[in-house]
Structure formats: C-alpha cells, structure tokens
Amino acid sequence: MGLTRRTLTLLVATAAALTAPAISPAAAAPPPTSAVEPLERAHAHNDYEHDRPLADALEHGFTSVEADVWLVDGELRVAHDLEDTQPGVTLQSLYLEPMRDLYRENRGSIHPRWDGQLQLLIDIKSDGPATYAAIDRALRAYAPMMTRWNNGQLREGAVTAVISGNRPLADMAAQRVRLAGYDGRLADLHSGLPAALMPLVSDNWTNHFTWAGVGPMPEAERQKLHSIVATAHAQGYRVRFWATPDMPGAARDAVWRELIAADVDHINTDDLAGLQAFLLAHDPQEQQAAA
Questions:
Q1: Those residues with Cβ within 8 angstroms of residue 271's Cβ, 6 or more apart along the chain or in another chain
Q2: Is the per-residue pLDDT at 127 higher than 80?
Q3: Between 76 and which of 1, 67, 91, 129 could a Cys-Cys bridge form, CB atoms 3.0 to 4.6 Å apart?
Q4: CA angle at 189 for the pair 217 and 143, rounded to the nearest 5°
Q5: Residues 57-93: tens digit of each pLDDT
Q6: β-pairing verdict for 75-78 and 62-72
Q7: For this UniProt entry, which residues form the secretion signal (predicted)?
Q8: Rounded Cα distance, 125 and 197, in Å
Q9: Is the pLDDT of residue 291 over 90?
C-alpha cells in the first residue's frame, strides 16, 4: 500500500468544527469526540455530497476524499454538475482551509498521531489546463502541508493531492515543482510514466469486468484483477476502481471482498459507515492495525 498508517485517535469534534462552510443544517451540530481507526483503503467518492464534507469522512476513518471542481468566475467551485456550483463553496473552503486547520492543530498531520498522507483526489470537470493552473496556485498557498515533487523527488506531506478528470498531463509533467500527482488509467499501466508523476491509476470497473458481485467471480476475471494490481504495484502505482456496486447487500460485499483479496489500494464508496464497518470486519490489514 502506498499510504502508511499508525493507529490514531481522531478528534471528531475538532474536525467538525473546522469544516465551518456547511452545506446543510445538519453540519451545525458537532458529533461527540470518539476514537477512530484510520482505514487505508477507504475512499470517499463525491465526498462533498455528504452533510459535512471532509468531517464525515474523517469521522469514519477515511484516508482519501474526492472533490469535483469547476473553475467559475475565478473560483474553484465544488459540485458534481455546473448548475449546482455556488459562490464560496470552493476547494479552499470545503477542503484546503479545514485541512490546514487540522494540520496546525495536530502538529503536522490531518489525523492526530498518524504518519500517513490524506489523499485529496481533485476531479477536474471544467477545462483541464485552465482549471489545473488555478488548482496549482491554490495548492501553493497551502504548501507546508502538501506532498510535493521537486524534479521528480518526493517529499511527503500531510495531504497528497491527485488530479483526476480532465487531467492536463503535459502541463503537469513540465513542472519542475509540482504539488499534485496525475491519476492515470489502466491504459497507462505500461506507459512508462514514473510513479513520481502518476502515483495512482483509476478506472471504471464496468469497462474491465462483467462480474458485479452476483455468484462467484469468474476465475479469469479474478486473475485479471490480481494481475492489474500486481503490475501497478510493481511500478509504484496505487489502484482504485469507480463504478463498483455500492448498494448495501451481498453483491457489494462480494466485490469488496475480492478487491481486498487483490490488494486494491482504494475502495470507492458513498456509504461511509458501510465501508468502515466492512473493512474493520473483513480486511486483515485493518484488523491487524486495530489489534
């Protein structure tokens, strides 16, 4: 796995208080402080759609969150669709500012007493080069907490940004100092792109697998999945699939079991509590950490 971890005690009340730009009234009441185990595989898909962006994910031990971004009137607005963007609801207000507050509060980490990196997956929805240029400027304002690549040399920070969606590969590759990685696709597995540029490879599950959790996984598809992960890991890439089954039930559980068995790095979900419970119950890696 690319992200390391120590057992943490997550101060949920602090996280909730620091995510002040609430999307819904439910965000007004901070939850009680609780101890939460960090979950290296847990990725919050469309995290901003939860009542308390970032805070809900941290409360459930997630170590990766995803935000869709549109460049509108000079702002990096967060929403799935352009018509849903709102002034002031931005990458900075929902994510970078609360992360910086937590970074300062926790003396250099997002999760207290944890030495891993929180992944911020930024899915560009608008024009790639223009939006990435604005993201790059925004990230530089938070440089002390960010992972950076300087002439290909990695310096890990508390937050690792990765660019997905409309990704301007040439623009990113040309940067001497970069504060974000490139999210590749399975077609890039044999591209020779270094992990210093492409730390993550993501793809649509349904484009590569017919099995959706009903009945046993075909052995040929199981071998294909394991081969994909092994090939990626051998080159230093992490792996994520989107569009896996996400409705609670046996089919989702079956797919999640196969993803864990293949050592897929990030499991994509909108169901924070569901994945948290599943990983703690079924992922040997998480069980060992919690012991």
A1: 246, 248
A2: yes
A3: 91
A4: 115
A5: 999 999 999 999 999 999 999 999 999 999 999 999 9
A6: antiparallel
A7: 1-28
A8: 21
A9: no
Q: 249 by DSSP, 3-state: which? A: coil
Q: What is the mean pLDDT of residues 174-197?
A: 97
The 10s digit of each residue's pLDDT in 203-214 is 999 999 999 999
Beta-ladder partners of 75: 72
- C-alpha span between 273 and 155 (Å, rounded): 32
- The pLDDT score that the predictor gives to residue 34 is 43
Q: By the 8 A CB rule, do 62 and 73 touch? A: no
Cβ-contact 101, 94 below 8 angstroms: no
Euclidean distance between CA atoms 78 and 89, whole angstroms: 6
What is the rounded average pLDDT of the residues 248-275? 98
Tell me, which fold does domain 12-204 have in CATH?
A: TIM Barrel (3.20.20)
Give residue for tokens 């926790």.
106
Residue whose pair of structure tokens reads 């990196």 in the numeric block? 117
Q: Write out the two tokens for 48.
A: 């901003």
Q: Which amino acid is at 272?
A: L
Cβ-contact 12, 33 below 8 angstroms: yes
Choice between 173 and 7, residue whose per-residue pLDDT is larger: 173
Please work out, in degrees rounded to the nearest 5, the angle formed at the alpha carbon of residue 106 by the alpha carbons of 102 and 112.
100
Q: Which residue has the tokens 């901003």?
A: 48
How far is 133 from 123, CA to CA, in rounded Å? 14
For CA atoms 45, 239, 118, 93, give the dihedral sign.
Answer: negative
Backbone angles phi, psi at 68, to 5 degrees: -85, 135
Tokens of 16: 């909730």
* Single-letter code of the amino acid located at 72: V
The answer to whether residue 130 scores a pLDDT higher than 90 is: yes
The gap from C-alpha 16 to its chain's centroid, in whole angstroms, comes to: 19
